[in-house]
Hints:
Blueprint lengths: L4 E2 L3 E4 L4 E6 L9 E7 L6 E6 L5 E3 L7 E6 L4 E6 L8 E8 L14 E2 L3 E6 L1
Parallel strand pairs: 2-11
Antiparallel strand pairs: 1-3, 3-8, 4-5, 4-9, 5-6, 7-8, 9-10, 9-11
Amino acid sequence: QVTLVESAGGSVQAGGSLRLSCVVPGFTMNRACMGWFRQSPGKEREGVAVIGRDGVTMYADSVKGRFTISQDNAERILSLQMNSLKPEDTAIYYCAAGPLCWRATFFAAAYGYWGQGTQVNVSS
Protein backbone atom coordinates (compact mmCIF):
# COMPACT_ATOMS: atom_id res chain seq x y z
CA GLN A 1 0.00 0.00 0.00
CA VAL A 2 1.41 3.35 -1.08
CA THR A 3 0.24 6.47 0.71
CA LEU A 4 0.75 9.95 -0.67
CA VAL A 5 0.37 12.72 1.87
CA GLU A 6 -0.03 16.22 0.52
CA SER A 7 0.67 19.42 2.36
CA ALA A 8 -2.09 21.91 2.90
CA GLY A 9 -2.81 24.18 -0.04
CA GLY A 10 -3.86 27.71 0.63
CA SER A 11 -5.38 30.93 -0.54
CA VAL A 12 -3.44 33.68 -2.26
CA GLN A 13 -4.08 36.70 -4.39
CA ALA A 14 -3.30 36.68 -8.08
CA GLY A 15 0.40 37.07 -8.67
CA GLY A 16 1.29 35.29 -5.47
CA SER A 17 3.14 32.03 -4.89
CA LEU A 18 2.46 28.73 -3.16
CA ARG A 19 4.49 25.57 -2.74
CA LEU A 20 2.83 22.18 -2.54
CA SER A 21 4.58 19.12 -1.16
CA CYS A 22 3.72 15.46 -1.27
CA VAL A 23 5.43 12.93 0.98
CA VAL A 24 5.53 9.31 -0.11
CA PRO A 25 6.94 7.23 2.75
CA GLY A 26 8.70 4.03 1.80
CA PHE A 27 8.32 4.61 -1.93
CA THR A 28 11.18 4.80 -4.43
CA MET A 29 10.25 7.86 -6.42
CA ASN A 30 12.94 7.54 -9.08
CA ARG A 31 11.47 4.20 -10.13
CA ALA A 32 8.16 5.76 -11.06
CA CYS A 33 6.56 8.65 -12.82
CA MET A 34 5.52 11.33 -10.37
CA GLY A 35 3.14 14.12 -11.07
CA TRP A 36 0.70 16.81 -10.08
CA PHE A 37 -2.83 16.98 -11.43
CA ARG A 38 -5.68 19.36 -10.66
CA GLN A 39 -9.43 19.49 -10.93
CA SER A 40 -11.67 22.54 -10.95
CA PRO A 41 -15.42 22.44 -10.37
CA GLY A 42 -17.21 21.23 -13.45
CA LYS A 43 -14.00 20.26 -15.20
CA GLU A 44 -12.13 17.04 -15.71
CA ARG A 45 -8.91 16.31 -13.89
CA GLU A 46 -5.95 17.62 -15.87
CA GLY A 47 -2.23 17.12 -15.72
CA VAL A 48 -0.21 20.05 -14.44
CA ALA A 49 3.39 18.86 -14.18
CA VAL A 50 4.97 15.41 -14.25
CA ILE A 51 8.41 13.80 -14.02
CA GLY A 52 9.32 10.57 -15.77
CA ARG A 53 11.76 7.95 -14.51
CA ASP A 54 14.46 9.58 -16.63
CA GLY A 55 13.94 12.89 -14.87
CA VAL A 56 12.37 14.53 -17.89
CA THR A 57 9.63 16.94 -16.91
CA MET A 58 6.49 17.94 -18.72
CA TYR A 59 4.21 20.88 -18.02
CA ALA A 60 0.77 21.89 -19.12
CA ASP A 61 0.92 24.87 -21.47
CA SER A 62 -1.12 26.91 -19.03
CA VAL A 63 1.55 26.68 -16.32
CA LYS A 64 4.80 26.69 -18.29
CA GLY A 65 7.21 29.28 -16.97
CA ARG A 66 5.22 29.67 -13.74
CA PHE A 67 5.24 26.23 -12.08
CA THR A 68 8.21 23.99 -11.29
CA ILE A 69 8.02 20.35 -10.30
CA SER A 70 10.85 18.74 -8.35
CA GLN A 71 11.49 15.65 -6.29
CA ASP A 72 13.82 14.79 -3.44
CA ASN A 73 14.40 11.07 -3.77
CA ALA A 74 16.21 10.79 -0.44
CA GLU A 75 13.42 12.50 1.51
CA ARG A 76 10.71 11.03 -0.74
CA ILE A 77 9.12 14.42 -1.30
CA LEU A 78 7.51 15.64 -4.50
CA SER A 79 7.08 19.42 -4.73
CA LEU A 80 5.30 21.91 -6.93
CA GLN A 81 6.43 25.51 -6.77
CA MET A 82 3.70 27.75 -8.14
CA ASN A 83 4.51 31.36 -9.00
CA SER A 84 2.55 34.14 -10.66
CA LEU A 85 -0.66 32.40 -9.71
CA LYS A 86 -3.83 33.23 -11.60
CA PRO A 87 -7.49 32.83 -10.59
CA GLU A 88 -7.80 30.07 -13.17
CA ASP A 89 -5.25 28.05 -11.17
CA THR A 90 -7.90 27.61 -8.47
CA ALA A 91 -8.49 23.87 -8.11
CA ILE A 92 -7.95 20.82 -6.00
CA TYR A 93 -4.41 19.62 -6.61
CA TYR A 94 -3.46 15.95 -6.44
CA CYS A 95 -0.06 14.32 -6.40
CA ALA A 96 0.26 10.97 -8.11
CA ALA A 97 2.73 8.12 -8.43
CA GLY A 98 2.97 5.67 -11.29
CA PRO A 99 5.33 2.76 -10.53
CA LEU A 100 4.57 1.12 -13.89
CA CYS A 101 5.15 4.34 -15.84
CA TRP A 102 8.44 5.15 -17.57
CA ARG A 103 8.12 8.38 -19.48
CA ALA A 104 6.39 11.52 -18.26
CA THR A 105 2.77 11.44 -19.22
CA PHE A 106 -0.48 13.24 -18.42
CA PHE A 107 -2.40 10.00 -18.96
CA ALA A 108 -4.03 9.66 -15.55
CA ALA A 109 -4.46 5.90 -15.83
CA ALA A 110 -0.67 5.54 -15.78
CA TYR A 111 -0.67 6.63 -12.15
CA GLY A 112 -1.81 3.97 -9.74
CA TYR A 113 -1.55 5.96 -6.53
CA TRP A 114 -3.07 9.32 -5.66
CA GLY A 115 -3.01 11.76 -2.79
CA GLN A 116 -6.14 12.97 -1.08
CA GLY A 117 -6.08 16.35 -2.80
CA THR A 118 -5.42 19.82 -1.47
CA GLN A 119 -7.32 23.00 -2.25
CA VAL A 120 -5.64 25.99 -3.86
CA ASN A 121 -7.60 29.22 -4.16
CA VAL A 122 -6.38 32.22 -6.11
CA SER A 123 -8.38 35.42 -5.87
CA SER A 124 -8.29 38.29 -8.33
